[in-house]
Amino acid sequence: MNDVVTQSAKPAAAAGGQPDHPAQETDGFQLVIDALKLNGIDTIFGLPGIPITDLTRRLQANGLRVIAFRHEQNAGYAASIAGFMTGKPGICLTVSAPGFLNGLTALAHATTNCFPMILVSGSSEREVVDLQQGDYEEMDQLAIARPHAKAAFRVLHAEDIGVGVARAIRAAVSGRPGGVYLDLPAKLFPQSIDAEAGKNSLIKVVDPAPRQIPAADAVQRALDLVRSAKRPLIILGKGAAYARADADIRALVEKTGIPYLSMAMAKGLLPDTHEQSAAAARSYVLPEADVVVLIGARLNWLLSHGKGKTWGGASAKAWGGQKFVQIDISPQEADSNVRIDAPVVGDIGSCVAAMLAAMGPSWPQPPAEWLDAIAERRTKNVAKMAESLAKDPSPMNYHSALNVVRDIVKANPDAFLVNEGANALDFTRSIVDMYQPRKRLDVGTWGVMGIGMGYAVAAAVVGGGQVIAVEGDSAFGFSGMEVETICRYNLPVCVVILNNNGVYRGDEKNPTGGADPSPLVFVKGARYEKLMEAFGGVGVLAATPAELRAAMEEAIRSGRPTLINAVIDERAGTESGRITSLNPSAKKKA
Ligand code: ADP
Ligand code: TPW
By C-alpha distance, which of 25, 95, 32 is closest to 62? Predict the structure, then answer.
């Protein structure tokens, strides 16, 4: 069953005096496997069941790594972040209807975040589904996937598997990357075709993510604008991290001398400790900058849409007066929120290289007043942060716990840092410095809860190194059962739950005085560490920074699956973390 070809019982007709020999046949299962392998896919995240159980077995038998999860959503998040980490599409494999729907959130997440991913789902009989005759797990999956994916395809015939897989790969990684849906009906898998014809039908995708070279006049327009700036600023987004143009991006930043901000998942593209980082002066540089160069970052809600008070606008929707250069692979991105004065359309590697080449050997540095003003704010804010980090309250708060994580990441800069929660996210992002590209993996564009354990598994499996997952206790709950997966594959994942007994904080009361707890709180003093122990991993309850530090150091030394339940003050934390302003009740109050 695991051979590339299977022997047919019927002998082939002898031709041209050749001796008779049995016809060699292959089937749909094998062609899917061969098509993926041919394109360098070596890892599948999924969950077995009808009609893909045998596919998972045969994938493994054919040498692919199959990572089986406890819930498809987590397999999907794993695939999405594997796509970000590697630039190859991450593959999530699910069963039909409910399994497909469980994976769909992750597919939409991949599309939203511009991560290349392919959700491959088995589906039931087309003829029965289309007549709505009540098939097992009946659902028109292709139609449902389409609005959430960059592209969606269905393969009905074994000889089209090669084309289907090739199209899915190209769609996922070319241009702006995204999520792709590939529908494989149950009837496809056992279809037999001639092995040679099957082999010839497969496509090894040539240059799946072709370079897109920017126009020379667009590059010149951007450089002219940058040269005219008195207070220039660069913003690096996760598209810049994804582009893997690390050396050229660093060269551009350093050659121009322009201060930069990193969006959350671009942290570490240049080390956060770089002297041009304006992270500690963010609220000063955004309204003050006159020319802003966006590299792989959208002017969406995470950047206050490029206007309003954050940008020095007089009111919530007013333009702050900045001029923008935007480097992006998507030509439609420019002008989505404010005018882009100098769009540079192309892949970031090519765009940044073209800018460097056109800059010539020397480039004027930004005015000293601008750099000095930023340095002054930075020094002040860094000192303020150091003061907060040095405090040792009992119980711990976010700062005292994250001060430990900050030190551990500094000592282990190649560890992956997975991060979700509200306060647990915002404080980690601002307190824990990153030193290497594509190491910080977080909630992304939607601020979605639930990415935690799926990301952690993918980082360990695909990245092949130590993972630290800093989780709010609510955030962890969305994917907590995957600690079994972490233990089953014996992955070097250290989960740190910043446990304040609830969503945002843990001290809310039921206003009626009734017996039901507030919708925002959990069981007090929950022993999350025992969950890891249940599956053979290491569980630690940490009530002090010293206990947290010792447990994290041991987790990294041993490489064993570890869950540290870091107990913090249940009054620590604000509603919605740093995005309180988006909360409609806060808006009403304002
Ligand atoms: P962040 O959330 O970090 O601000 P976004 O997800 O909003 O980042 O933006 C990422 C941008 O990067 C998207 O507009 C996407 O089109 C772009 N992008 C992704 N990959 C590339 C690439 N290789 N070259 C150019 N642009 C890219
Ligand atoms: C899929 C809404 C945003 S943040 C959060 C929720 C439920 C949890 C915050 O509590 P946590 O962190 O994790 O304990 P902390 O440090 O603030 O106490 N469902 C989804 N996504 C989102 N974003 C939500 C709900 C939310």
Answer: 32
Mean pLDDT of 434-451: 98
Residue 280 Cα to ligand 1 midpoint, Å, equals: 23
Query: Domain-by-domain residue ranges, the chain?
Result: 6-201, 216-375, 391-589
Tokens of 488: 């089953």
Distance 259 CA to ligand 1 centre (A): 20
- What tens digit of pLDDT does each residue of 364-402 get? 999 999 999 999 999 999 999 999 999 999 999 999 999
Domain 216-375 has CATH 3.40.50.1220: yes
Give the residues across from 418 on adjacent strands: 441, 469
Task: Give CA separation, 239 vs 204, 350, 444, 553, in Å.
Answer: 26, 13, 11, 32
Of all ligands present, the nearest one to the C-alpha of 343 is 1
336 lines ligand 1 (CB under 6 A): no
pLDDT band at 147 (very low <50, low <70, confident <90, very high): very high
Q: Burial, 147: exposed, middle or buried (Cβ in 10 Å; 0-12, 13-18, 19+)?
A: exposed
Residue 12 has pLDDT above 60, yes or no: no
113 lines ligand 2 (CB under 6 A): no
Asked if 235 contacts 303 with a C-beta cutoff of 8 angstroms, the reply is yes
The CATH label, of 3.30.870.10, 3.40.50.970, 2.130.10.10, 1.10.10.10, for the domain at 391-589 is 3.40.50.970
Is there an atom of ligand 2 within 6 Å of 421 CB? yes
**Residues whose CB falls within 8 Å of the CB of residue 80, separated by 6 or more in sequence, listed in order:** 90, 92, 106, 107, 109, 110, 113, 115, 117, 179
CA distance 64 to 37: 8
CA-CA distance, 56 to 329, in Å (whole number)? 35
User: Fold identical between 6-201 and 216-375?
Assistant: yes
Atom 10 of ligand 1, residue of closest alpha carbon: 239
Q: Does domain 6-201 correspond to CATH entry 2.60.40.10? A: no
On whether the CB atoms of residues 95 and 71 are closer than 8 A, the answer is no
298 lines ligand 1 (CB under 6 A): yes
